[in-house]
């Protein structure tokens, strides 16, 4: 198998996706938002037009798959995960459903941790509106874009919030830490190395 060297150089520049140092710096960047325990504005005063990454959409029917594989439909508020450019070009949109705190078996200390965004897989927007809900990245799934287009056009759905710049970068920090953090060193060492034949021409 022959790979062009430029491709190998590109991949090498990407992996590991973020270093442990950058991961810690990202955590620190998150923590600075929460100094003195205050909330802050992370929602735009108006929607951005169309569906964009980070939008919070109400009244979306989401398939909920049970432990036994059964499927139920629940109407949920969802967080748009797909990149805004992908939304323009793809037929499906990635979403993460929101859950209220009382739907989980959280202690008061865990709720505090959740509100401080210390859980990798859960996204909380500490806006001054103080909404008691979080998006769960472990429940990310895709839904047809046409479903959203029709729902918004027919006013069955509603874009409740678009993110301002601070809220958007808060989301990017969370997605980076959750999906791109380095894996366990032992697991990394267990991955097989492949010898490539490089095309030097």
Short characterization:
The chain has 7 helices and 9 strands; from the N terminus they run E-H-H-E-E-H-E-H-E-E-E-H-E-H-H-E.
Explain what this protein looks like in three dimensions.
The chain has 201 residues and is α+β, with helices and mostly antiparallel strands. Helix 2 packs antiparallel against helix 6 (165-180). The chain has 7 helices and 9 strands; from the N terminus they run E-H-H-E-E-H-E-H-E-E-E-H-E-H-H-E. The strands form 2 sheets. Strands 2, 3, 4, 5, 6, 7 and 8 form a 7-stranded antiparallel sheet that branches. It has a two-stranded parallel ribbon with strand order 1-9.
Structural class: alpha+beta
* Mean pLDDT across all amino acids: 82
Helix fraction? 25-40%
- The oligomeric state of the chains shown is single chain
Provide tags for this entry.
7 helices
What topology does this entry show?
Blueprint: E1 2-4, H1 5-14, H2 20-32, E2 56-65, E3 71-80, H3 84-89, E4 92-100, H4 108-115, E5 122-123, E6 133-136, E7 141-144, H5 145-153, E8 158-161, H6 165-180, H7 185-190, E9 197-199
